[in-house]
Design goal:
The complex is a heterodimer of chains A (482) and B (502).
Chain A lengths: L2 H5 L15 H30 L6 H4 L5 H21 L7 H18 L11 H22 L4 H4 L2 H18 L1 E3 L2 E7 L2 E3 L1 H26 L2 E3 L2 E3 L2 H20 L3 H19 L2 H21 L1 H11 L10 H13 L27 H33 L4 H25 L17 H17 L10 H7 L11
Antiparallel strand pairs in A: 1-2, 2-3, 4-5
Helix pairs in contact in A: 2-4, 2-5, 4-6, 5-6, 5-15, 6-17, 8-9, 8-10, 9-10, 9-11, 9-16, 9-17, 10-11, 11-12, 11-16, 12-13, 14-15, 15-16, 16-17
Chain B lengths: L9 H33 L1 H6 L4 H9 L5 E2 L5 E7 L5 E5 L11 E2 L3 E2 L1 H5 L1 H5 L6 H5 L12 E4 L3 H11 L4 E7 L4 E8 L4 H5 L4 H10 L8 H4 L9 H11 L11 H7 L1 E3 L2 E3 L14 H7 L2 H11 L1 H11 L30 H8 L9 H12 L3 E3 L4 E6 L2 E4 L4 E4 L3 H16 L4 H4 L10 E7 L8 E8 L6 E7 L9 H16 L2
Helix pairs in contact in B: 7-20, 11-14, 11-15, 13-18, 14-16
The chains are: A mainly alpha (482), B alpha+beta (502).
Amino acid sequence: MTAGAAAGPRPAPLWGIRPRLRGRELGLLAIVGAAITVGSVALGATQRLAAAGDGTPSPATLFAPADVAILATYLGALLVAHLLLVLAGRRTDQVLLPAVGLLGGIGLLLMERLPQSLAGNLGGLARTQLVWLLIGVAIVAALAVAVRNDAWLRRYKYTWAAAGVTLLLLTFVFGRDVNGARLSLQIGPLTGQPSELLKVILVVFLAGYLSENRPLLVEESTRVGPLRLPPLPYLAPMVAMLAIALGIVVVERDLGAAMLFFLVFLLLLYVVTARVSYVAIGVAAFLAGGAVLYELFGVVRDRVNIWLDPFADAAGSGYQVIQALHAFARGGILGTGLGNGLPTIGGRPPIPALHTDFPLAALGEELGLVGVLAILGVYLVLIERGLRIAAAAEDEFRAILAAGLSLVIGVQAFIIAAGNLKLIPLTGITLPFISYGGSSLLANSVIVGLLIALSDRGREIKPPPAARRRFGRSGPLLGRAP
Amino acid sequence: MTAARPVAGRTVGIGLALSRVGLALAIAFGGLAVGAGYWQVLRSPDLARSPDDAAVIAAARHAVRGVITDRDGKQLAWNAKDKNGEPYRLYASPALSGVIGYSSILWGQAGLERAWNAELTGAVSADPLFDLTRKFRIGGNDPEALRTTLVLALQEQAATLLGSDRGAVVMLDPRSGDVLAMVSSPDFDASKVANPATSNAAFKALQADPALPLLPRATQGTYVPGSVFKIVTSMAALGSGAVSVSTTFPDQPAAEKTGLLVDGFRIRDGHHPATGSKALNYTSAVEVSCNIWFAEAGLRTGGDQLASTAGELGFGGPLRFDLPTAASQVTGGGGSFGGGFQDAVELANAAYGQGETLVTPLQMALVAATVANGGVLMTPRLVLSATNKAGTTGFSPQVLRRVISAQVAGEIRDAMVRAVSGSLGRQYTAGAQVSGLQVAGKSGTAELDPGSDPHSWFIAFAPADDPQVAIAVIVEHGGHGSTRAAPIAGALLRAWRAWANG
């Protein structure tokens, strides 16, 4: 990595600032910038061709970014974030920012390409999304630079839990209904989806609780006849917290968030206890709960029935699922190219919630199978980096927190992607960093910012002079700080 | 950092659990990749070409559609522009309405215009390579012109012969599955549906017409087949070895007078005064169209065998064809007697084409074509080639499957020749004879509810020794097969010969 920088004479600290080069991050950001620029130019050329009709514009005017201001602002923001991380001088992860930057950039291109009137009150879909992305990048950078102490997270876990539940209750009482689900809360001019913020709070609480009680959870168990069940007394507070969260989410009809919370909880429980039996019990409970919800709630029944056979009501309830599958099919292997797919009927895309719930279908059409695989690959990179940070963490709280945060992103991406591809019933949840929407972008930015902060490998110890002489090279041979 | 309780040795456990969770997520994402591959590669062709696809619908509203021609290059459908400069379709003849359909901005598409909408508008290409590289081209939509298998002259001749009667004609080349003519009557002027100036009034009149001109009878009309179905029974019975050409049923002559008793139910037949008390063999039974013989042959063959042979011919589901087709059925199904038949009575009735048996005209043309082609059923097709700027994509004939051996096909062919030109058969099918062309055929008189005239059927192929054309004709309520359908088939075979001889 930056062995030279580590060994070389460091610049004199200026107001305590010790910059540290982040070569890999810069290199990856350059690739990301090039990819997004190529995408923007392709989109621009397509749009200009369509606008020109029969007359073909000259290549000079044809090949230019679709919207130079948006492109430059976004890439500039990524660069500024990188420079801030350089100035912070921490030995933190260098892959997360470029990976998230790529996903955000792809999402931004999609928003530029959709009808601007679809949503957004800051001058259209793309500009509104850009504003949220800028705030998101700022959050990532701020948390990555500033969060050095985790006591405020681990010490007040019940306070966090209470805040989360309060947030949900507020939504339930004062929230507005969107598409049959009570998802959004309006405070003054701001509307948001509290379940997005709640997922971060939930992981913080779980990390605090699980790390504190891990020995008990691993060693104790409740015996019921021949069965070894989890130690119920120690699980109770956590299960209660989860039940409250799930219950409220279900009452609010936010099924995607409910599934996300439950799966992340299960996976974290496995990480802590390494007991497959817990996961099996959890899956059984999940299926039983699903069956109960199926009987009780029309919305669950509808979603499952649409999933089983969307073509039964192709013009009605199954419409958008079928349209998404058609979009994937139209894309084929290489896609139609940005701006060339997604037919509009009467000026609107055939999938109403395209920008929030079906961005993968839209990208599947325009970027093809190749694009979908690339996007899935980037999510896998995010997960891998997150779990790696967890594995290298210096204590259990940080390990579980990092694992939980990365699982939230991975599981959420899986749930919505699988829903788009008709592998599981569709639930209204966003595709992290790509979907349109402020709450989702902000919450996921908090996650990535925390992950980068958690990845800090501390200060290097200068290798003793003897070692330098013997190996003739220098470098961070001694892994982590004491 | 706050002091965490040191639990050395367990951190290893977390590491292992973490890598397992990571593996699980990697597998889950692998599942997503497989899912994406399924929809974007495996299902891509049929979904993206579907007439219900949004891009296909959107393209159809503005695109200048590709020209459709018959197999000799005569234009069947082309474009004109209305006063706003928007393109609309013109069609060569109302005779084409049952197969080419229409394309209208107001009413969408039907027929070949609908089935090949994606290619005709250029939303997708018949050439997979062109589709793959579409994103690298300027002006992605490149409408394709279709050269069909049809012959305009035969199409018009068939419509003329059907006249004002309701019915259908399907004419195939049995060697390739090429549809030479496919007519549904009554037909309509699709140009009026396509023209924005007349579209609304024309289409609403067609919708209100009790004769159902919008129903493409050749592919979606299902009819009681009557005796033409005996050819299917022949394939099952001779093909399975249950009966041979020399099989006779001793009780058959007597049953001509009293009716054949099956499970307490009497199957009656028109009498054959000419055959008297002689027990008929297979060829004679076809020649005089003996219901009793076929009822007994059907019972001996069994419901399972009859249903499975029919299934190989395409019964039981939509046919593999360019246009959507109704399913033909041997039985209503659900019975426990074998093959879905309720009991012996239904099987015996079905064996000579009554019972619960229902067929499409296209299906019966394929039955005749299978015999004609030595027992090999070709996939029927309507499009020879598609041409766009990138070039022409040709489609080859495709064998669907061998249904019966060449020997059994020969035996059935000989019987069908006798049915047209034998001393007894001639009485029924004289209208189908063509001088200088040996025709093999079978008439059918599909008995319906009492008080309504039977459907008149005829299926045939020619020349019998080297079949190049197969045909199915039905005239709804046209009376005996000999009165309406057979003469139409004969006239069309003469027209075919004139066309084939150039």
